[in-house]
């Protein structure tokens, strides 16, 4: 076998770009629905077409890619469907900002011209996120890329809308909805993010109309009082029994409104009296309906006060608040103002404060759909992993409200409903109608609204495979195998896909839902631009390579636990990539011209060979178990531990004498096992580190076959060798103990040592004698004496370590200047003690503990613990050296 020499350094930029291009051009990831292999399928959570790869995308798509590459190795026909979401509000906002630079609004252009601009933008910029996913190494079937507004999906959306409408599951009606004055559109309830906000609670006097007293209400939004139509108190509140049924005068508006009794009122909040504004609060609307109250809308869709607000008409809602408070104070109605922290709803897109208001919108009647979605998880048709997320899933579906699906924007799937000017009837149809379905009239105009973006993405698992046609893809790959997603869209997307998949496909859209956690910064804080703690995956890939980033995310992806990410951790795993490269370089250099065995010997004689082959069987089992159960961190850590600490640090070091020696049989066997194991390790590492493993596999195998097509290594359980593992563990303990003595005593690495090993029994003695050369080479000895404990005396002037059945000693006479070492240790102890005292003093300072951020305090505690451990070791070494000084003085 002949190999081109492997460069000393791994130049990831060139290698990554080359393999991304090769995989795409060769269509390595194309799925064949006619294949006889068992299916495995995933649909990508479609990123917004406006998006750029962030760390959440990097984690999500790395985990999906690991599963897809692994399943290909296991013999599955894998379909991973890529695509993007049209992101109605977000994309429209981007293009509106773009044309605003030209002094234009969408209304200046008109709907048709504006949509042309959006499509132009999509053609120019919409592929960024897809190119970034390819750069990440995502092994999607790029020939099947979909877009939520491509022709096939658009028709499917219309079909779904029409069918649900005809089944009575979609309707149009006046209901309270959340409205975003910035985006100028309705929002579904779950598109409203409640944020804790520092506000004020205003206590306002409402005088009784009979002139005898007043009722004081408390509100956080005094501007809405202009639309009050009642004051409510609890029917059993003794403070207000005398005013129930009376009338108060609404301050500033001088309008009489009734005092009503309703058990909804919280007697403990504020004054126990609640102002009722049915036009601007969901709960007030329900109370208003119950008591037949008038509804007044004093805040318009643009956040400007309406004519119903009287003299405050035309003011911005926040300016109106200031004016109302000033006028209340001036009129003697403002009793008190208190600081008050409360939750305020914000638009999940633009972060503006939303306004509840009554509006005519389209809704999905969700209750029957939600019941089936819950049943599918309860009976096990779909698993949610980790299981703790089931509670959130059920809780939301149990309390689900009808879904507002109409949006007052232009970019999106336009609602397929037409209104007749002659009979006022509504025609809902898949194809554009020529005439009204009710009266035959031709004066029709289509609804101006578009559908909620999540409506089309709820159909993603089956529409991307060609529904409503009965395609081979649907027959082969639906239901999909697993959905990998973040918990933040469990309700936005997962629950809705469940509802739609069950309704239209009569089966769940996925068998498993793996919910991964958030990627946070090193201190556990959520990443945000405002905090300046965002770690950009594109920058990290440029700096450390894609494999290092992917491995870092995977190594910390423990189920149910957020990832605390830092650049230092990514840099750390860059060293692991280099370790893989350098180990491969060593193996490739030493199999130059060698003809490797096609099949490894069943039971090699040498202990190190038996040990590493046995350990590899355990790794195979660990990798399979971890990935089958979505324990990505265990998969990564298992391979990291084995490759670095067993294959590299021990096995390759042990066999170097064979690789460089003159015994042809020993050399050939060492070459064969080292190369075969490396090949198999590259296969196991490939799902998480696709680039470096593909490059090395090509160099090692010398074949044109891509590593993406390689099979998972076959299990050989008969290679499990507990005796070899036990014996090797003892040898490693002895060697490590001798190495530790060298380090603790500050003996230079180049100094060859004398060692004595006292064995508890004949088995241990025979093991050490048989592997004498390994001990001498790896512990860097020039002399090794092995004997039974009852036969040999404990050596003088030596430092020892105890392993299971073996006492190992390093002879220090002539190697160590005891007095100099004692002084060195004393100096080091003093330095560490001083540092530890400073840290402990800081931790004893109550002011520091109270004022410092939690992560700073935690770091100081870790530092104190680390210094304490180091101090303990130094003191133990000092005692050991002092004992040697005494022993030497006694002759």
TrEMBL record:
Sections of the chain in a coiled coil: 815-884
Domain Methionyl/Valyl/Leucyl/Isoleucyl-tRNA synthetase anticodon-binding: 610-754
Residue window of motif 'KMSKS' region: 526-530
Keyword Aminoacyl-tRNA synthetase: yes
SUPFAM superfamilies reported for this sequence: Anticodon-binding domain of a subclass of class I aminoacyl-tRNA synthetases, Nucleotidylyl transferase, tRNA-binding arm, ValRS/IleRS/LeuRS editing domain
Aminoacyl-tRNA synthetase class Ia domain: residues covered: 19-566
Keyword terms: Aminoacyl-tRNA synthetase, ATP-binding, Coiled coil, Cytoplasm, Ligase, Nucleotide-binding, Protein biosynthesis
Residue span(s) of domain Valyl-tRNA synthetase tRNA-binding arm: 818-879
The EC number(s) this enzyme carries: 6.1.1.9
Transcription regulation as UniProt keyword: no
Reactions catalysed, as given in the entry: tRNA(Val) + L-valine + ATP = L-valyl-tRNA(Val) + AMP + diphosphate
Record: residues binding ATP: 529
GO cellular component: cytosol
Gene Ontology molecular functions: aminoacyl-tRNA deacylase activity; ATP binding; valine-tRNA ligase activity
Sequence intervals crossing the membrane: none
Motif mapping: 'HIGH' region: 47-57
Compartmental location: Cytoplasm
Gene Ontology terms: biological process: valyl-tRNA aminoacylation
UniProt-listed PANTHER family: VALINE--TRNA LIGASE, CHLOROPLASTIC_MITOCHONDRIAL 2 (PTHR11946:SF93), VALYL-TRNA SYNTHETASES (PTHR11946)
NCBIfam families associated with the record: PRK05729.1, valS
Record's function text: Catalyzes the attachment of valine to tRNA(Val). As ValRS can inadvertently accommodate and process structurally similar amino acids such as threonine, to avoid such errors, it has a 'posttransfer' editing activity that hydrolyzes mischarged Thr-tRNA(Val) in a tRNA-dependent manner.
Subunit (UniProt): Monomer.
Similarity section: Belongs to the class-I aminoacyl-tRNA synthetase family. ValS type 1 subfamily.
Entry comment, domain topic: The C-terminal coiled-coil domain is crucial for aminoacylation activity.
Name of the protein in question: Valine--tRNA ligase
Organism annotation: Desulfosoma caldarium
């Amino acid at each position: 076998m002949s190999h081109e020499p492997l460069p000393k350094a791994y130049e990831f930029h060139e290698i990554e770009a080359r393999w991304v291009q090769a995989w795409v051009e060769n269509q390595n990831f194309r799925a064949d629905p006619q294949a006889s292999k068992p299916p495995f399928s995933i649909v990508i959570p479609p990123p917004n077409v406006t998006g750029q790869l962030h760390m959440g995308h990097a984690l999500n798509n790395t985990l999906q890619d690991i599963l897809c590459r692994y399943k290909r190795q296991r013999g599955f026909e894998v379909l991973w469907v890529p695509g993007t979401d049209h992101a109605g509000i977000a994309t429209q906002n981007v293009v509106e900002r773009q044309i605003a630079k030209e002094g234009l609004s969408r209304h200046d252009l008109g709907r048709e011209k504006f949509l042309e601009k959006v499509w132009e933008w999509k053609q120019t910029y919409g592929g960024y996120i897809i190119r970034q996913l390819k750069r990440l190494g995502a092994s999607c079937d790029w020939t099947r890329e979909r877009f939520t507004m491509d022709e096939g999906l658009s028709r499917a959306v219309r079909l779904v809308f029409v069918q649900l409408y005809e089944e009575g599951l979609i309707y149009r009606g006046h209901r309270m909805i959340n409205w975003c004055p910035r985006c100028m559109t309705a929002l579904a309830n779950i598109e409203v993010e409640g944020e804790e906000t520092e506000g004020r609670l205003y206590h306002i006097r409402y005088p009784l109309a009979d002139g005898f007293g007043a009722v004081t209400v408390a509100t956080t939004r005094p501007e809405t009082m202009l639309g009050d139509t009642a004051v409510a108190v609890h029917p059993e509140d003794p403070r207000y029994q005398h005013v129930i049924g009376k009338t108060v005068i609404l301050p500033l508006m001088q309008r009489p409104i009734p005092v009503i009794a309703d058990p909804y009122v919280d007697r403990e909040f504020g004054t126990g009296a609640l102002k009722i504004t049915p036009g601007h609060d969901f709960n007030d609307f329900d109370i208003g309906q119950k008591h037949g109250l008038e509804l007044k809308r004093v805040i318009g869709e643009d956040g400007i006060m309406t004519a119903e607000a009287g003299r405050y008409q035309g003011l911005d809602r926040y300016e109106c608040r200031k004016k109302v408070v000033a006028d209340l104070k001036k009129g003697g109605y403002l009793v008190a103002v208190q600081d008050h922290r409360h939750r305020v709803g914000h638009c999940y897109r633009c972060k503006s404060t939303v306004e509840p208001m009554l509006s005519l919108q389209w809704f999905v009647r969700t209750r029957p759909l939600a019941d089936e979605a819950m049943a599918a998880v309860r009976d096990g048709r779909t698993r949610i992993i980790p299981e703790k997320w089931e509670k959130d899933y059920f809780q939301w579906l149990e309390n689900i409200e009808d879904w507002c699906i109409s949006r007052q924007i232009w970019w999106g799937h336009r609602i397929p409903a037409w209104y007749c000017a002659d009979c006022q009837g509504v025609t809902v149809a898949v194809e554009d109608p020529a005439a009204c379905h009710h009266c035959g009239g031709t004066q029709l105009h289509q609804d101006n609204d578009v559908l909620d973006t999540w409506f089309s993405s709820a159909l993603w698992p089956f529409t991307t495979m060609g529904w409503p046609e009965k395609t081979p893809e649907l027959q082969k790959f639906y239901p999909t195998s697993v959905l990998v997603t973040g918990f933040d869209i469990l309700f936005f997307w997962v629950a809705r896909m469940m509802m739609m998949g069950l309704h239209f496909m009569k089966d769940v859209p996925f068998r498993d839902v793996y919910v991964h956690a958030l990627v946070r910064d090193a201190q556990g804080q959520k990443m945000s631009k405002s905090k300046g703690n965002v770690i950009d995956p594109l920058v990290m890939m440029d700096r450390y390579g894609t494999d290092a980033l992917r491995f870092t995310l995977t190594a910390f992806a423990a189920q149910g636990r957020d990832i605390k990410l830092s650049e230092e951790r990514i840099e750390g795993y860059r060293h692991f990539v280099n370790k893989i490269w350098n180990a491969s370089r060593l193996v490739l250099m030493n199999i130059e011209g060698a003809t490797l065995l096609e099949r490894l010997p069943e039971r090699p004689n040498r202990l190190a060979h038996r040990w590493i082959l046995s350990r590899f069987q355990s790794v195979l089992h660990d990798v399979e178990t971890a990935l089958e159960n979505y324990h990505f961190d265990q998969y990564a850590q298992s391979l990291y531990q084995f490759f670095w600490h067993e294959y590299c640090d021990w096995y390759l070091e042990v066999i170097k004498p064979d690789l460089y020696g003159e015994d042809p049989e020993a050399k050939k066997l060492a070459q064969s096992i080292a190369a075969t194991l490396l090949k198999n390790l590259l296969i196991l590492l490939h799902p998480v580190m696709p680039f470096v493993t593909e490059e090395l596999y090509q160099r090692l195998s010398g074949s044109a076959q891509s590593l993406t097509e390689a099979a998972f290594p076959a299990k050989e359980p008969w290679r499990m060798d507990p005796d070899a593992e036990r014996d090797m563990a003892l040898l490693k303990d002895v060697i490590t103990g001798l190495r530790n003595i060298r380090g603790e005593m500050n003996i230079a690495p180049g100094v060859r040592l004398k060692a004595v090993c006292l064995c508890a029994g004949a088995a241990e003695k025979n093991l050490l004698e048989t592997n004498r050369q390994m001990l001498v080479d790896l512990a860097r000895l020039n002399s090794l004496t092995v004997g039974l404990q009852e036969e040999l005396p404990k050596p003088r002037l030596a430092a020892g370590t105890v392993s299971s059945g073996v006492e190992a000693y390093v002879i220090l006479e002539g190697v160590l200047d005891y007095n100099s070492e004692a002084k060195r240790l004393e100096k080091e102890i003093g330095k560490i003690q001083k540092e530890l005292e400073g840290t402990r003093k800081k931790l004893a300072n109550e002011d520091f503990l109270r004022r410092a951020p939690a992560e700073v305090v935690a770091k100081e505690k870790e530092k104190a613990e680390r210094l304490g451990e180091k101090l303990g070791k130094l003191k133990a070494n000092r005692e050991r050296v002092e004992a040697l000084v005494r022993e030497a003085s006694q002759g």
